[in-house]
Specification:
Layout (H helix, E strand, L loop, with lengths): L7 E7 L6 H12 L6 E8 L5 H6 L7 E7 L5 H11 L4 E5 L10 H8 L5 E5 L6 E4 L3 H18 L10 E5 H8 L9 H11 L4 E5 L1 E3 L8 H20 L5
Parallel strand pairs: 1-2, 1-4, 2-3, 5-8, 6-9
Antiparallel strand pairs: 4-7, 5-7
Helix pairs in contact: 5-8, 6-7
Amino acid sequence: MSQERPFLSVVIPAYNEEKRIGKTLEGMLEYFKNKGFSFEILVVDDGSTDKTGGVVKSFKNPSVRIDLISYPENRGKGYAIKTGMLKASGEYVLFADADMSTPVEMFERFEPFLAKGADVLIGTRKTERAYVGKHQPAYRESMGKVFTWLSNQLFNLQVSDFTCGFKCFHRRTIEPVFGSQRIFGWGYDTEIIFIARHQGFHIQEVPVSWFNDEATRVKLLKNVFTCLAELYQIYHNNRKGLYG
């Protein structure tokens, strides 16, 4: 296998995903193998207690690097993403949810922007051409709207969708953004977008299709107060000059 930098790295954060990660890897391998560019896949096992790691290790491909990064303690999705993004070697690095709520085929909507050298692309479910095939429960959608409103008000970002787990970053943005990331809970989305904007990178929203997975492990009600505290922490970190 060539040691040259791949065009794309795909980072998948995973916690107790033994039932889904195999199908996700199969789908990604099948999709990207016909794209005509080199790629690698990094699964970050965020302290799983099931056989997630074993399923990933069972995948062997002579032409594609499929790497497992694991650690014993569950540290949160934000930590898993930071770890994977900083370990990835691609010219572009995409992170995507293990449940593929945003189908991997949506990457084709990113490609025209990548060809122009885009800095940061974030999938959105809330603009024209976006499609939500299966909605979240109404209370979750309402709380998501509140989170989006607060994030925009506090940080003047004008972003329609912070929490869609389908985002792509150019190599030049990785260390400035993820090297500065400090939030590992639900507020990490807002933090990395804020850091990217603060560092002067251009952020482009791209409409995607999305399907709610009822097996999601995001306990929204439980995390409301944690999330508010994290938004305050981002504000405080910026005041202290921690984002450059």
